[in-house]
Amino acid sequence: MNNENLITEKDVAHVAVLARLHLSEKEITDFTVQLRSILEHGRDITALDLADIPPTSGPIPLENVFREDVKGGCVDKSEVLSEAPGHQEGQFLVPPLLDGSE
Amino acid sequence: MKLSEQLLSAKEIAVGIKNKTFSATEIVSDTLGRIEKLDGDIHAFLNVTGDQALLRAKEIDEMVSKGEDPGILAGVPIGIKDNICTRKVATTCGSKILNEWKPPYDATVIEKLRSQGAIVVGKTNMDEFAMGSSTEHSAFGPTKNPHNIKCVPGGSSGGSAAAVASGMVPLALGSDTGGSIRQPAAFCGVVGLKPTYGLVSRYGLVAFASSLDQIGPFSRDVDDSVLLANAIMGHDPLDSTSLDIDTPPIKINSDGGVRGLRIGLVSEFLEGISPEISEAIERACKYLDAGGGQVESCSVPSVKQSLSAYYLIAPAEASSNLARFDGVRFGMRVDGKNAEEMMVNTRTAGFGDEVKRRIMLGTYALSAGYYDAYYGSAQKLRTLVIRDFESVYQKFDVLLSPTTPTTAFEIGAKIDDPLTMYLSDVCTIPTNLAGHPAISVPFGYDSKGLPIGLQVLAPALKDDLTLKVASYLESARENAND
């Protein structure tokens, strides 16, 4: 989080691709300004010496939680599919994965 | 708007229904009438489920007439934040992207409420995916503060807070990731509790930031929050972060008030707060002192950096949680020539600005080359917050602070400046990072007639202590001369 490492419009455009969002030119400009101010506020963390502090990912130290391997109830398949934008033969229907030639 | 003082509490409703003083049908009809009358101005509800509520009321009345006990919330109407799944009833999360999605299952809290006789009367408005502090980020328009409809009700659970404050319902459920129950409770002058992380199942709560999210009650008095907390707590195998411990019902023994309790006044939370809130804190300290509490100033240094840590951790988790909204399994779809284009088109059209901003922030904080500097440091700060609280709780039983630095602000005042909006959560966020319980309780009004909320914090699983101290602070209202 050094000065020279401020988030740029190029970064924002790249992150939008990763996040599967299409941003207009104006959105890229606005988000760059806004994200920069939020990230700059975050500098108060880097001002601290955290080298020997372990990270915490959640309030409860969690181990794997398993249940008994027995058959339980589950939601109704047709009810699930009826809420999907597209379905066919009991499965979710999506456009072609590779290209749009068909 | 004049708020009615003659409203029945949840406790009174449940007792009255069991004693046949009135019927659940009468109560629900009354409630629906009030919503009809008030909600045009307030917009607390996104969806009112009147027909289902009346059917359920009839069932409750039949149980009572047969001598069966419908439960501790017999016939009590309740509003549910619209990010909690209700089977076959639209659950929008305040977003266009879910497109009136009807979940095929109920959240665990909904099943628990039903088993205690509560009656869901509708789904309440919220900032989209619970991201916001004003309800202005709802895709369906803002909720108004019942005390002044030019002001925001707070957020993200603003609809729930406003529904309770305006007397439409005695109880509501919200969710709190960084203050989304306590901040709107403070702005609307009602009680709002964020329970200890893991005490209430998150199964069926649409995830925002899974390590911070917690469902909790809104009510007009502390007793009703106890009642609702008792109905929804408990281990749930469907939530792997649910605490597998005994959760005996919370009982507040108000005899003795706060006598002997060591109460820490956190100095960091008093920086930059409005003078009128500062005065309220002083009055509260005197009142606690008069009741035999030992109030002393204390310091929790790392809460100063908590806001920064939160605005890296919560968006990081959100960017991952919200990846599921891709137009494949539920909600809206905007077509494209291939699957990826369809996903981009759907997400671009379906998410609002604030959600996009947080997804972007989170994706960036997690991206290669920046992970250690941002997300990694924020997680370390989280460790410091937990250690600082541990240390201060060696000397104190509970901590006291304002819930918010100011009272409710006007609609539109902060909408264009995300960082300023985020700063209204500065007092509530550290609790979520630590996973501790905290409550907001109304404590007087400012000169504009807007409610002031005070926050009581306690260590994990000491939810009862926050409620006990809040109950004492609430009694100041009855003892006040005005």
Describe the structure.
Chain A is mostly helical and 102 residues long. Chain A has a domain at 1-43: Orthogonal Bundle (Histone, subunit A), CATH 1.10.20.60. Chain A has helices at residues 9-18, 25-41, 43-46, 77-82; strands at residues 87-88, 91-92. In chain A, α1 crosses α2. In chain A, 17% of the residues are buried. The mean pLDDT of chain A is 89. Chain B is of the alpha/beta class and 482 residues long. Chain B has a domain at 10-232: Alpha-Beta Complex (Amidase signature (AS) enzymes). Chain B has helices spanning 10-18, 24-42, 50-65, 108-115, 158-165, 182-188, 222-232, 275-290, 303-321, 339-350, 353-366, 372-392, 418-422, 429-434, 463-479; strands spanning 45-48, 77-81, 119-124, 171-176, 191-194, 214-219, 262-266, 294-298, 398-402, 438-445, 451-457. Chain B is globular. Chains A and B meet through α1, α2 and α3 of A and α9, α10, α11, α12 and α13 of B.
Question: What is the topology?
Answer:
The complex is a heterodimer of chains A (102) and B (482).
Chain A: H1 9-18, H2 25-41, H3 43-46, H4 77-82, E1 87-88, E2 91-92
Antiparallel strand pairs in A: 1-2
Helix pairs in contact in A: 1-2
Chain B: H1 10-18, H2 24-42, E1 45-48, H3 50-65, E2 77-81, H4 108-115, E3 119-124, H5 158-165, E4 171-176, H6 182-188, E5 191-194, E6 214-219, H7 222-232, E7 262-266, H8 275-290, E8 294-298, H9 303-321, H10 339-350, H11 353-366, H12 372-392, E9 398-402, H13 418-422, H14 429-434, E10 438-445, E11 451-457, H15 463-479
Parallel strand pairs in B: 2-3, 2-4, 7-8, 7-9
Antiparallel strand pairs in B: 1-3, 4-6, 5-6, 5-10, 9-11, 10-11
Helix pairs in contact in B: 2-3, 5-6, 7-15, 9-11, 9-12
The total of beta strands of chain A comes to 2
Largest sheet of chain B: 11 strands, mixed
Distance between the termini of chain B: 20 Å
CATH architectural name of the domain at 1-43 in chain A: Orthogonal Bundle
Major sheet size, sense and barrel closure of chain A: 2 strands, antiparallel
Report mean pLDDT of chain B, rounded to a whole number.
Answer: 95
The overall strand count of chain B is: 11
